[in-house]
Structures are given as C-alpha cells and as structure tokens.
Amino acid sequence: MKEKREIRYEARGTRPNLLFLTNCQERNIDWFKPIYQWFNETLVIVFTTSKHQALTSLAKLNLTFFNQIIQFFDFGISRIHIAEIDFANSQEIPATIKEEIQAEFPYGQGSIQFVSVSSRNYLVEEDDNGELRASKLTTIRKDTTGKEVSFEIAEESEGTQRLLDFIPLLIGLARNKVFVIDEIERSLHTLLTRKFFDLILNHKLFRSAQSQLIASTHEVNLLDIKKLFRKDEIWFVERTPTGESLLYSLANAEVDNLNIINGYLKGRFGAIPFIKDIKDLGWENKLSINSFILCASGAFIPTSR
C-alpha cells in the first residue's frame, strides 16, 4: 500500500516534459526498473538513416562473423579489413579533433572513443604504451588480376553500407534483443531482403534466442505465407481519412489458396495508396513548365513549354 502511494505521488510530480519511466529511474523506484531496462537495453530502433557508430569495434571482436555475412550475401567483397591509422601523424583526422581527443581521452581506463570525419568512422583506443591509436573499417575487393584493392566504407554502395549496419543487428538477435526497423528494404535488392528474413527465421543461430524483429516495409515479395511467414506475422497499416494509422493482421483472412501479392496490389487487403488518374491533374495545354535542355557542352539552358 505504501509503495502504491509513493507511485501515485511520483506520477503527480512528474514534469510534463519528462517520461514517467525516466522519472522513476531517476528516483530509484525499483518497481519499474525492469521495464526501464527493457527499453534502455533490449529495444533497439533502426531508422532509415541509422548508422552504427561502433561498427569497427564490433568487427574487431567478430571479424569472422562479419566476413561470413558479407560473403553470404555476395556483394563481391573478398573480406572486411580493420585498417590501423597512425593517429599522431595521419592527416585523415584533423589536428584540431586529434588535440581535443588527446586532451579529453580517459587514459588508463581501457576506454574507447568513436570519431566521425567526412563520412568515415574511426575507433580510437589506448595501446600498451599509453599512446592513442586509431582504426577504421574497410572492404577488400579483387581486381581483374586478383590483386587486393582496399575501399573506404563510404565508397561502397548504399545497399552494402546498409547491410554492414545490419550485421550488429544479427549479433543482437542472437542475444535476445528486440529490433524495430523502418523500411528494412531501403537500398537492398528484393532477393537480398527476402534472404535476410530467411536467415533470421530459419538458421539455428537464432532459433533458441528470445529475440524479435519488427520491420515496416513496402516490399510486396515478402508477402509469402507458404515459405517465409505465418499469417499472424504479417500486419497491414491503413491510413484513415482523419490521418490515423490502423493496424490489422492477415491472421483471420482466408488466403491459403490466394496469390497474396496480386490480391494486395489490387487492394483486397487495403493499405495501398489510391492514386488518381493522370488526367485528373488537368494539365492539358494549361500549364507552363520550366524545364532544362542539356547542351553538348554540359550547360543547362532554361526553357519554357
């Protein structure tokens, strides 16, 4: 009874701009610690623009796993490589940033720092002599003669970078994490996206883990209830006339003998955009559009038609 009164007191005293769970954590209320820890330690949200800052550090610890995944998805990469950087003399990291790191680095504590410079991510750590050293992740490909050529991660395609950022996700799914990914198919080939789910759902590495992956997608080829998902694992999101999002499952639909992809694209399940006829734009002979003509010299000349 006393604890309930304390919780009501904390609820009334929580500031409007502060989450109740955060307030309970700051006030050391034990009742809600497991919930707070789940959000803080178990749940991971991956946005379309998310980049994993600790990728180099994770690759150092799991280099074999990284190479197995990158070769499994056949990106033409021979291997992932950790390139060591001469922190003191390298010009890749600006002198002002290096001076700031050297001044603030927690020496003697086994700490690491992550630094981003011009789309390149560096791992900075202390060596056995108390000096700072840096490293970065690179990819190794082979040219037509079989010679190895090193590429910066930023030089790889968006799809390759996206997959590299998903490798920590695979590690987390094997360790009871919950991931929510927005538009999981972004920059990935349709077959690769499907194979990614096939790997997670069917490989023994993930079967015993108490993990979960929730992903939003526009990839219709994932609508497969025979070889990939159960019906209750597929949900649609329909926007209502008032702008709200309505979620409903495929679980109770009679679709066992139906081509779900064709049915979905024809609007049988909703959750598709209804685009008007082009003629409804009313542009015929009424609209003057500024456009550009590309000349042989490479100059752009504005025109009107």
- Strand content bin: 15-25%
Number of helices: 10
Compute the average pLDDT: 88
Taking the alpha carbons of the first and last residues, their distance comes to 77 Å
Structural class: alpha+beta
Spans of at least 5 consecutive residues whose pLDDT stays below 50 are none
- Tell me the helix content: 25-40%
User: Per the principal axes of the C-alpha atoms, what is the gross shape?
Assistant: globular
Number of strands: 12
The main pleated sheet reads as:
5 strands, antiparallel
- Give, in order, the helices and strands: HHHEHHEHEEEEHEHHEEEHEE
Radius of gyration: 26 Å
What key phrases describe this protein's structure?
single chain; 305 residues; 12 strands; 31% helix; globular
How is the secondary structure organized here?
Elements: H1 2-13, H2 20-26, H3 33-42, E1 43-46, H4 55-61, H5 63-72, E2 79-85, H6 95-104, E3 112-117, E4 120-126, E5 132-142, E6 148-152, H7 158-173, E7 178-181, H8 190-202, H9 204-207, E8 212-215, E9 235-239, E10 245-249, H10 260-265, E11 290-294, E12 300-304
Parallel strand pairs: 1-7, 7-8
Antiparallel strand pairs: 2-5, 3-4, 4-5, 5-6, 9-10, 11-12
Helix pairs in contact: 4-5
